Design the sequence.
């Protein structure tokens, strides 16, 4: 969108009249007078001191190997943990079922 010029809607976009006089050439650029010395570039950097690098340390030793795992013992432990979890869930479910039956029986009778 262009800025408004005060002309009617489409007058801004119409071609100029071919019988009108063309505009004159643009004025020639004038050289600006320099008011000071020319730019000499950035200042030279001072060299760093000879001991500018941070101290280096030797890398730590490689990590030790972990002890081997007994996969059969892990499987047995997981099985017994699953059995305990299912047992606790069954007991909690049975208690919840008994309580629900008691509450419903009390509400009905």
Sequence:
């Amino acid at each position: 969108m262009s800025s408004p010029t005060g002309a009617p809607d489409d007058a801004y976009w119409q071609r100029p009249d071919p019988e009108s006089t063309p505009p004159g050439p643009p004025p020639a650029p004038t050289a600006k007078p320099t008011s000071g010395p020319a730019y000499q570039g950035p200042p030279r950097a001072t060299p760093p001191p000879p001991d500018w690098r941070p101290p280096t340390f030797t890398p730590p030793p490689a990590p030790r190997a972990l002890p081997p795992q007994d996969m059969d013992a892990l499987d047995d432990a997981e099985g017994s943990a699953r059995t305990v979890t299912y047992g606790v869930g069954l007991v909690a479910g049975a208690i919840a079922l008994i309580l629900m039956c008691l509450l419903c029986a009390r509400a009905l009778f």
Notes: The first helix runs from residue 71 to 108. The chain has a mean pLDDT of 85. The helical segments are 71-108. The chain is about 35% helix and 0% strand.
